[in-house]
Amino acid sequence: MIQGKKPLTIVLASPRGFCAGVERAIQIVERAIARHGRPVYVRHEIVHNRSVVEALEAKGAIFVEELDEVPDDRPVVFSAHGVPKTVPTEAARRHLLYFDATCPLVSKVHREAERHAEFGRTLILIGHAGHPEVIGTMGQLPPGSVLLVEDTEQAEVIAVPDASNLAYATQTTLSVDDTVDIVAVLRRRFPEIHGPKQEDICYATTNRQEAVKAIAGKCDALVVIGAPNSSNSMRLVEVAANNGCSKSRLVQRASDMDWQWLGNARRLGVTAGASAPEHLVEELIASCRDRFDVTIEEVRTTAESVVFKLPRELVG
Q1: CA neighbours within 13 Å on the CB side: how many for 304?
Q2: Any catalytic annotation for residue 118?
Q3: Are strands 122-126 and 166-170 parallel, antiparallel or unpaired?
Q4: Residue 86: is it exposed, middle or buried by C-beta count within 10 angstroms (0-12/13-18/19+)?
Q5: Which residue of the set 23, 45, 112, 133 is catalytic?
Q6: Do 108 and 140 touch, CB atoms closer than 8 A?
Q7: Which helix (H) or strand (E) holds 49?
Q8: Residues in Cβ contact with 86 at an 8 Å cutoff, skipping those fewer than 6 apart
Q9: Rounded CA gap, 262 and 65, in Å?
Q10: pLDDT tens-digit profile of 262-305?
Q11: I need a labelling partner for 147 at 20 to 30 A (CA). Which of 67, 75, 134, 271 fits?
C-alpha cells in the first residue's frame, strides 16, 4: 500500500459511457465539418454532455436553439434526441442542407407513433415532460393526439377519449423498472392497449442500468459521470439508490467531485451515462489515485457490439 494513502477499490460498471447512437451523432457533426468546412450549426446539444459539446465547438460546431439562428448558406445537424416534424419541414422550406443525427432507436419510436396514428389510436407516451426526445416524439403527430404520462400516479388517473383504441410508447432513456410499473397500470386500466413489438427503452439504457444493479450492493458509494439534463444518467443514480447503494450521486467530471461526501467509503462504484465520454471516467480515476491507494475492479454484465450507419451523404 502507498504510504499515507487510504485504500480505495473502484468498482467499474461495464458497459458504461457512449452508446452507438451517441457515437453516430458525434461522427455526423465531425464529418459534416470535414466535408463542408466551419462552421456547421447544430440545433440543440448534439448529446447531453458539456465536454462533448465543447470538443465539437473547438472543431467548428455552433450550437443554437432554433433554426432561425442558422444562416441560409450553412449546414445544420439535428440532435440525437430527435426533432418535431416541423423542424425538417422548415429546413426544407428554406433549402437548408441538413443532417439528421436522431438516434435510430428514437426514430423507431417515431415510426411506431405514426403507425398508431394511421389506425386512429390515441398514443400515450411514457416520458419526462420537456425532454427533447419527448418533444420530438410528440411532434411527430398533430397536437392533442399524444398524451404524456410521467409516473404511475398519472397513469392511474389519465383520461382517454376511447379506452378501446389506445397505444403506448416510451422515451428510450427511462428507468426500466419504473417503466414496467407504469405499463402495468396502463394495461390494468386499458386491457386493449397496444404496445410496441419490442420495448422502446434502448439497449444501452437497459445495459447500463443492469451493470449498475450488479455493482450497487457491493459499493459504499457510487458516482455516475454524466450531465444533470441527461435522462439516462439521472436514471442510473436512481437505479443505484434503489438497488443497494443509497450513497449515489451524479458528477459531471472529476473537478466537480465532493471528496468530503465520499467520507470513509472503501469501495466506490463508478459508471457513466450513455452520452459521457470514457476520458471523463479516466479523469476521475486519476483524481482518485492522487488521494487514495486505488485498486480497480471491473464488473462486466454484457458485451455491446451495436453500430449504427451514418447518413449516406456523409460516407466515403
Answers
A1: 22
A2: no
A3: parallel
A4: exposed
A5: 133
A6: no
A7: none
A8: 139
A9: 37
A10: 999 999 999 999 999 999 999 999 999 999 999 999 999 999 99
A11: 67
